[in-house]
Structure formats: C-alpha cells, structure tokens
Amino acid sequence: MLELDSVRAGYDQIEILHGVDLRVDEGEIVALIGSNGAGKTTTMRTICGILSPTAGSITFRGESIDDEPPHDIVRRGIVQVPEDRDLFTDMTVADNLLLGAQTKTAISNREENLTEMYELFPRLEERKNQRAGTMSGGEQQMLTLARALMGEPDLLILDEPSIGLAPQLVEEVFDVVREVHEQGITVLMVEQNVQQTLRLADRGYVMENGRITMSATGTALLEDDSVIEAYLGV
Ligand code: ATP
Where in this chain does the record put each ABC transporter domain (predicted)? Predict the structure, then answer.
C-alpha cells in the first residue's frame, strides 16, 4: 500500500533521513520505534507531504506521491494525527470534528461519522459544545484522533498518540486503534509505549540516526535482545 524506497529528507541543509526503506501493506498495523531524535516524526512528515524527499521515492497504491502537497495526499486517503495537536482552539469540539471531513465522500458522510465518533469517544460527546482550547490535554488528544478519523482514512498515521496521557487514556487510545483497524483502516504508528505497540503491531521497524536498523514482526522485535535493552528498559 505504502512504500518508501531509499528516502532522504531533512530541514534546510540538514539531512535527517539517510535513505529510509519502509513498507506498509493493506490491512496491517506497522510500528516505527526509535530513540528521541531518530527521525520518526520527520519520516511521518515526509510521507504526508509536509517535507519533500531530496532523494528516493514514496509510492501509495503504486503511484508516486513524493511530489504531492499535503492536501492531495489527504485526498488519496492518508490522514495523519500529528504529535502537536493542531486544533482550532477557539472552535467547539463538534466544529473541530466536522472540519476533519475534507474529501467529498467524508463531507457527505460527516453527520453519520460524527455519531460514530461520539460512540467511540463518549467524552467528546459530553463536551461537544465546549471550546477545544479549554479541554484537558488528554481530551484534546482524543479530539485530534477523532478528527483524523472524520477524514475517513484508508491509511491512518499516528505520531505518539498516547504521549502524556494518564494510563487509563493510554488504554483508550490503544482500544480505538484496535477498533478502527478492525473496521479496515491500515495503521502506521510511532509510539513511545513500545511494548504495548509491538504487541498490537503486525510488523515493526527500528529507526536509529535516520536509518532503519531492524525490521521484523512485532512479536519477534519484542523478543529481540537489542530491542529489549534499548527500548523495553530491561
Ligand atoms: P522524538 O521521539 O523525540 O519525537 P523523532 O524520532 O520523532 O524524535 P524527529 O522529530 O524526526 O525525531 O527529529 C529528528 C531530527 O531532526 C532531530 O535532530 C531534530 O532536532 C531535527 N528537527 C526536527 N524538526 C526540525 C526542524 N523543524 N528544523 C530543523 N531540525 C529539525
């Protein structure tokens, strides 16, 4: 479904990704793990068209997307939940959700999808008329995720969806990821919560210093000594 082949990218003159190869197949949950500053967020931004690769290629369903602007990539069905929440803080929860519907089909289905989001995130329904900026950090994170789902993604890209959340909300985020995946959405996720993520993922990649250093099934990575030592704190 998504394929990165020898992708190089970065900021101004500084190259951060030094030739990244990564693949996500239809129906998978794929995890990208790595230490701080490894280039995980940069990889996500490059897939979504916020950064352009300086070399290599990115294809989605066999078509090149590496020269496309972000809104065209969204139109193809790739929706990202960014690490910084990027909400319209003066608008209500409901209006933020409605703005997540960007494609023609998502716009025509948006009332129905809104009802579904309120089922998935009851807390958002309780607070639908509240200004987004006055929600707690955890609630804003839920809203960001729900808004992305309003875009009816085929491929959902999550950058640290559980960062800074209380344990109960972390569980809720993982439950939502599991549920949307069961509904047929393919997922690529970056998460600090490595153990839980690798348990959920079909496959995972380890990134270090802008390069993929390991790739295996989630289960195999969980049992790998170097992964255990570096990321599972044993
Ligand atoms: P973390 O787990 O800490 O979020 P990450 O693996 O997501 O890390 P990136 O955010 O991709 O890492 O950052 C990779 C490198 O790119 C870092 O050295 C960072 O300082 C640098 N970087 C990130 N954003 C910018 C920017 N806008 N301009 C210049 N350098 C940047």
Answer: 2-234
* Residue ranges of domains in the chain, CATH in brackets: 1-77+153-234 (3.40.50.300), 84-151 (no CATH)
Exposed/middle/buried for 67, CB within 10 Å: 0-12, 13-18, 19+?
exposed
CA–CA distance from 151 to each of 34, 80, 88, 134, 232 (Å)? 28, 10, 16, 23, 34
Report how far ligand 1's centroid is from the alpha carbon of 56 (Å).
20
Q: Tell the residue nearest (CA) to atom 22 of ligand 1.
A: 11
Q: What is the ipTM of this complex?
A: 0.93
d(CA 28, CA 33): 16
* pTM: predicted TM-score of the whole model, two decimal places: 0.89
List, chain by chain if needed, residues with CB within 6 Å of any ligand 1 atom.
11, 14, 16, 34, 36-42
CA distance 29 to 110: 25
Q: What is the pLDDT of residues 15-46, one digit of tens each?
A: 999 999 999 999 999 999 998 899 999 999 99
Contacts of 223 (CB under 8 A, 6+ apart): none
